[in-house]
Design brief:
This protein is of the alpha/beta class. It contains nine helices and eight strands. The structure holds BIS(adenosine)-5'-pentaphosphate and magnesium ion. The site of magnesium ion has 3 residues, from helix 1.
């Protein structure tokens, strides 16, 4: 199965992607996670990406498309299927993805647009924590860890993302409405688009994503 999750920052793309990986064995391809790994490893790409991410801006299309194309063309990814989280984020990226999949003779099963009000997003991002070791996502109120500051799964220390500051969150939301909302319209014209209500809990959101695909 090959899926795309589109939605504003904090809507739950990473949360749903983790469920799809765990339950369907798909490979997760999160552009944001890949950039954060490059930043941690202090590569040239990481240094470039950090300048944009810290301000809530998009990393330029050219380097982003190249980075994702390499992962999409991986033989293991072709076999397992994938869930794209955070890519494509511009119409230019969506067109490039079409081209890559065409060259690979692959199609998309579903493009899922997860939708919530901006107010909910601000609350979700303000309380988010992630595990430095396994990437598990928590929330101080919605999904608190059993032991403060430590991951339930692997005991790793939890951290708060550098772009989860109030000013940066507002900029990410603005960038989403300007650049990524047109990508939802782009897929609306291809007939693969599924709109789901992301204001419900993670399990209910997952059911909305999976039931039309499974049936
Ligand atoms: P990226 O990492 O993709 O961040 P984002 O799109 O801003 O989304 P988030 O990861 O913040 O949120 P999410 O939707 O995954 O929500 P989550 O599941 O964590 O991108 C970061 C940056 O990288 C971009 O700003 C850009 O600079 C750059 N970048 C990335 N891709 C790019 C591209 N293609 N082109 C150019 N630049 C790119 O959930 C959030 C919180 O809510 C958590 O605490 C969670 O526990 C909670 N939660 C989740 N679901 C629910 C629910 N249903 N009910 C209650 N709480 C919930
Ligand atoms: Mg995410």
């Amino acid at each position: 199965m090959r899926l795309i999750l589109i939605g504003p920052p904090g809507v739950g793309k990473g949360t749903q992607s983790a469920l799809l990986v765990e339950r369907l064995g798909l490979k997760a391809l999160s552009s944001g996670e890949i950039f954060r790994r490059e930043i941690d490893a202090q590569t040239d790409l990481g240094r470039l990406a950090q300048r944009y991410i810290d301000h809530g801006e998009l990393v330029p299309n050219g380097v982003t498309i190249e980075m994702m194309a390499k992962r999409l063309r991986d033989e293991e990814t072709r076999k397992s299927g994938f869930v794209l989280d955070g890519f494509p984020r511009t119409v230019r990226q969506a067109e490039a993805l079409d081209e890559i999949l065409f060259q690979m003779d692959l199609g998309l099963d579903r493009v899922v647009s997860i939708e919530v009000e901006d107010e909910t997003i601000i609350h979700r991002l303000a309380g988010r924590m992630g595990c430095t070791k396994c990437g598990e996502i928590y929330h101080s109120r919605n999904k608190p860890p059993m032991r403060e500051g430590l991951c339930d799964r692997c005991n790793g220390p939890l951290f708060v993302r550098s772009d989860d500051q109030p000013g940066t969150i507002m900029e990410r939301l603005r960038v989403f409405h300007e650049n990524t909302a047109p990508v939802v319209d782009y897929y609306g014209r291809t007939g693969t688009l599924l709109r789901v209500d992301g204001s419900l809990g993670p399990e209910e959101t997952y059911r909305q994503i999976i039931s039309p695909i499974a049936s």
